């Protein structure tokens, strides 16, 4: 290095200025910076690796970082070489070019691994030298790949400088990267590494000169510059790909580390049993957890900055105990002790504390950790044990448990006061030295009438305890009023200690809890769990004895009316009365339970049908008998009925689930059939239920499979005859069943909730179709009661209108009074929201169901639709015509137009025209047909 001077410096400057293209230098800096940046960002991950796989994690991060840095340095070198003017047409040796890449990658990986594993300044300097040497080896191997008609001559002063000068930049770069916590530090390390690579390249290139020679250097496979440029493009792509992969790994590792740190911090801060705090170098509080508040009384704001000595008593502070604890921690790394500490309120408590020294990665002390827990109770117990050993006998005397000690000769050594009280034995008959046989005759473990059996039982129990070497506990039901938990423990020398605890109350409580777990709290009847267990036992016994088992599902009728009319207290009284009747009439082999609400279930084993009939009659008698009124003034008695469904094992099923399901199906049939209170299960019920479930499943996929379609029925003005609009009608073409009637699948859709997406699909299709009509005709769409309960109905309608572009004035929504009858205030709010958009609302099927006169003036309807059932009778029934006339008069008085549905004949039309009806709809004007836009398109094609 002594020969390196101004001449060499000018030689390097001249090489950079005259022999390198600036744009290629900038491109090389970009490639090197990208790769070096990712490599430097991975170094902190290698340093912070923790756990059992720490070494493997460090190796993985170093390999990936070295791969990035080696690739980047190699790409930067050859990018600048492509812009390097050597004065010759150059090619490149394939072997040496590949070797330079391998040398750069391996050298970078080894150097970075050594940097991560080194902790000293010399070690980091050595790693920087190794990294510079590896990159230099890559550079000169790449230069050796040049194929030019000249000899290469090197200036060894500059060659040495190219290896040593980058060390001055790489050493601080590695120091910063290994401790990087912020992106700015990673950026600084990246700039230093990139600068070192460029210094190496320019110094090493300036050291090269060419001597023309006739000797050919084209041995081996030579790569032209164009191919090398392509290689560099691939290398750049690889750098970007690996960079993205490294970035993803870094982010995942960073997120995982942050999550772990947050979780650990939350764990420490949330721990309330231990006061955990961090002390700074001056032994003042720097961090404080929740345990500090609960144990010492200071919250975090108050504790910050308090000296460690503040938590000691005045005496301990005067004695220098806080300073001694800190000094011991500095000397040994940790200090433990028991201290009398002071809380914020001035009270004292004994604490076990641990002070441990904290150091940074360089071993510099940065503070201390303090972990404290309250051992006041332990300290008191220890002091009490040490101070009151002579009072042990008194403690034994006051034990709630009976205790006695026997020696190896089966003679009593000691018995406490509770022992005599439990066994009701006089103390004068149970003095030390009394034999076990004498105690047995005195009433120990038994009465005096069976002492031999008592002695045998005691000796076997003691033998089991001696064999097990433990302290087994078993229960003794001595009498109805005395249940004992007995524990026997052998003692050295052949004797044993026996303890007896009176658990009579506990046994009664357990029995009460067990009864409550298996019985209904209101009625005292078995609950669902107990009924299921009993039914399983009945089915198993019936299978053994050949008896049949009938399961009865019971649902009370009019129970809700009683709750609504007389209050829930009356409903509860009714249920308790029915339960009392059930219990009084129940016989062997019968079970009845309350499953919840007004739902009961019963089961009976029988051999003859008459036994089952009698059981059913008794149940019905219990239910239908009037319950006395809940009033003191002789009010009306409470009357209910019930629907009963019956399934019999084995013909209707052999498992509990099957029988209960079939009984429920039969009960629902009884409930749905007028005048039928008892219904036995039939195979068709199950088939019908399965059919409905299958139909519901198929309906969920109908729209996606294209099985649904809309038909449109015209609505005309009866005054002018002009087309007023169309009503959209949903049709389902099932692939196997064919056309499924709406009155069959619509109720199923409403029960399953499928009507919500189905109704939205219909509304969207109808609005999109109406948007294509050339005129201003309206499209009418029905809303079911279930749809009307949607909280976001108004927003859904608004979104579909915006999506399809249909003007709101051309949409009419039809609802029945059933949809609004349950919650009129909510319905009114919803209708006003729909009307505010400009959408019109019609009340459908007026005159049927829940129709009432006060509905029309209370709600903002735009149209009344007369149900077709009145129109069908209008020609022959004066009463039907009177109803039509009344509805039309009501519409005129409220200024609401009226539309009549179901017009099929000329005569029906004449009746409506004579009465002044506004609009009509029915087969007379046209059957439901395909979309008008499709019909018009087909007509145009046919023309």
Question: How would you describe what is shown here?
Answer:
- With 943 residues, the protein is of the alpha+beta class.
- The protein folds into 5 domains: 6-250, no CATH class; 271-383, 2-Layer Sandwich (Beta-Lactamase); 388-509, 2-Layer Sandwich (Beta-Lactamase), CATH 3.30.450; 518-681, 2-Layer Sandwich (Alpha-Beta Plaits); 703-938, Alpha-Beta Barrel (TIM Barrel).
- The protein is 53% helix and 19% strand.
- The chain contains 34 helices and 29 strands.
- It has an 8-stranded mixed barrel. A 5-stranded antiparallel sheet has the order 7-6-10-9-8, with helices on both faces. A 5-stranded antiparallel sheet has the order 12-11-15-14-13.
- Helix 3 packs antiparallel against helix 4 (94-117) and helix 5 (121-144) packs across helix 6.
- The model is unreliable at 216-220 and 939-943 (pLDDT under 50).
Give a brief rundown of this model.
By secondary structure, the chain is of the alpha+beta class. The model is unreliable at about 215-220 and about 940-943 (pLDDT under 50).
Topology of helices and strands:
Blueprint: H1 6-19, H2 22-47, H3 54-82, E1 91-93, H4 94-117, H5 121-144, E2 146-147, E3 150-154, H6 156-178, H7 183-206, E4 208-212, E5 222-224, H8 225-270, E6 275-279, E7 285-288, H9 290-296, H10 300-303, H11 314-319, H12 321-332, E8 334-342, E9 348-359, E10 365-374, H13 376-387, H14 392-397, E11 402-406, E12 412-415, H15 417-423, H16 436-442, H17 451-468, E13 473-479, E14 482-490, E15 496-502, H18 504-517, H19 528-545, E16 548-557, H20 559-566, H21 568-585, E17 590-596, E18 599-606, H22 609-624, E19 641-649, H23 656-672, E20 678-680, H24 683-702, E21 708-717, E22 723-734, E23 738-740, H25 742-752, H26 755-770, E24 778-782, H27 785-788, H28 793-804, E25 811-815, H29 824-836, E26 840-846, H30 855-858, E27 863-866, H31 868-872, H32 878-894, E28 898-900, H33 906-915, E29 919-921, H34 932-942
Parallel strand pairs: 19-20, 22-24, 24-25, 25-26, 26-27, 27-28, 28-29
Antiparallel strand pairs: 1-2, 1-5, 3-4, 6-7, 6-10, 8-9, 9-10, 11-12, 11-15, 13-14, 14-15, 16-18, 16-19, 17-18, 21-22, 21-29, 22-23
Helix pairs in contact: 1-7, 2-3, 2-7, 2-8, 3-4, 3-5, 3-8, 4-5, 5-6, 5-7, 6-7, 16-17, 20-21, 21-22, 24-25, 26-28
